[in-house]
Write a structure and sequence with these properties.
about 130 residues, about 50% helix, about 0% strand
Amino acid sequence: MDLAEIFCAIDDYCTQQKINWNVKILSPVVRKRNRKFQLSLSEVATIVVCFHLSHYREFKNYYLIEIKKNLKSEFPKAVSYNRFVELMPNALSVIASFLSNSCLGKCSGISFIDSTILWSMRQQKNPFS
């Protein structure tokens, strides 16, 4: 998928569900400041989803190289890496609900069960008891 397609899908989902920065499911108990965010919640979620679709193994390299340098025109108000890491937990619930509601396929009614024994789950008898 293209970056614009991913952003449009997530942004449409956020506007449809009326999700914004003010509604926080996992908010901290003590609130320090209430300043306006430079990135939208849709942009944060898009960056996280695109990282998982990329070939990068570390998020820091992905953010500093791809977002801050290569995709600077798409994200002109990109915040620093440390600030973005602080914003990521807010996007977790949006990503989880978006993926579970929009990106799962329909069940065809045919399911498979794997009944292979997992050796780590076997009960091991203690010879000294």
